[in-house]
Write a structure and sequence with these properties.
The protein has a domain of 36 residues. A hairpin with a 2-residue loop joins strand 1 and strand 2. The chain is built from two helices and two strands. It is of the alpha+beta class and 55 residues long. Strands 1-2 form a two-stranded antiparallel sheet.
């Protein structure tokens, strides 16, 4: 049983809202700040992993 079906069975409804935009990375100079995520690529950017592979 899905959580949505279980909630419906319990009489719980969720307000549907527009999906928001989550900015996962901010660049300032040559520094990238990430927010709660990691890359699935292994290696060093510029040596083992290219910028194109990260996108």
């Amino acid at each position: 049983m899905s959580y949505t079906k279980k909630a419906q069975d319990l009489g719980i409804t969720f307000n549907s809202q527009e999906l928001g935009y989550l900015n996962l990375c901010i660049q300032t100079g040559n520094l990238l700040m990430t927010s709660g995520h990691v890359s699935d690529q292994k290696g060093i950017l510029g040596k083992d992993v290219s910028v194109e592979q990260e996108h």
